[in-house]
Amino acid sequence: MQKWSGAAFKAGKSIGVVPTMGALHEAHGSLIKRARQENDLVITTVFVNPAQFGPGEDYEAYPRDFNSDREFCEKEKVDAIFHPSTDEMYANPQTVVKIGKLASTMCGAFRPGHFDGVATVVAKLFNITKSTRAYFGLKDYQQLRIIKQLAVDLNFDLEIIGCPIIRESDGLAFSSRNRYLSEDERRRAVYLNKALKHGWQLYRKGEKKAGKIAIEIRDIISENTGGKIDYAGVYDADSLEEISGDIKENIVIAAAVHIGKTRLIDNVSSYEEALSQKK
Ligand code: PAF
């Protein structure tokens, strides 16, 4: 992969990378399409990264279907797929990337070490693919924020591009984990987005009290999904700290809920609102 990318880089080609863990779906497709528009070459990486799963999480169960991912990439006219083995990626490593405060809230508070694992693999993927631009979905808002910081802190010479959340017609954000949901859980899952949208409408209608919005979101999620909430609230879009008093601007309203055995996350953010207004 490094040879291929190195030759492309020397030939002056721009390279867009879409890092994924496979089980590709429409949201990945939208990232690949965007990378296709903006670069000479597109690489999709497919690697279920053990370093970002905690004990008891779904590393073993995580969907893996490389043949269907390859077909997906061929349809989207991806130039190269990087699909390494775990041994190739992690041969007795002694070095990790450690994320500071940005990893202490939201998902980071419930998945210790998760973002260190993400940052470590993403740093490796950036070095391996020598990309010009890297594309990430806004569904993983905290991940995107952390990767942007990683690129600044470690001087990666590439552009990190955050792309809009892609949703099913009823609002559920596409996720590889949606395939774990039973029919009944799938019906209930839709209330995650409904709750966050409701919170955003309250905010846009002038509600300034973050606590009031958080309570309403939590109520909608608990009553309609019956799931265990990890977090649900209003966060500063930049520091990711939870806002407890008055909201100023630049926020993300986000939540994570366990529906049955499936942990789902979603958010609505000023970042995405600004992207949709630019269109
Ligand atoms: O968002 C994902 O699929 C993963 O966290 C990523 C960025 C590919 C790193 O393993």
Cα-atom Rg, whole angstroms? 19 Å
Number of helical segments with 4 or more residues? 10
Total strands: 8
Q: The biggest beta sheet, please?
A: 5 strands, parallel
| Succession of helices and strands | HEHEHEHHHEHEHHEEEH
List the quaternary state of the chains.
Answer: single chain
Structural class: alpha/beta
What is the percentage of strand-forming residues? 15-25%
Helix content: 40-55%
Overall geometry comes to globular
Distance between the termini: 35 Å
Q: On the 0-100 scale, what is the average pLDDT?
A: 98
Which strand order do you get reading across the main beta sheet?
3-2-1-4-5
Low-confidence runs of at least 5 consecutive residues = none
Distinct small molecules: pantoate
Provide a short characterization of the protein structure.
By secondary structure, this protein is of the alpha/beta class.
Key terms:
279 residues; alpha/beta; 3-stranded antiparallel β-sheet; 10 helices; 8 strands; binds pantoate
Layout of SSEs?
Elements: H1 2-10, E1 15-20, H2 26-38, E2 41-46, H3 66-75, E3 80-82, H4 86-89, H5 106-110, H6 114-129, E4 133-137, H7 141-153, E5 159-163, H8 183-204, H9 210-225, E6 228-236, E7 251-259, E8 262-269, H10 270-278
Parallel strand pairs: 1-2, 1-4, 2-3, 4-5
Antiparallel strand pairs: 6-7, 7-8
The chain binds pantoate.
Pantoate (PAF) binds at residues 19-21, 49, 52, 118, 121-122, 140, 143.
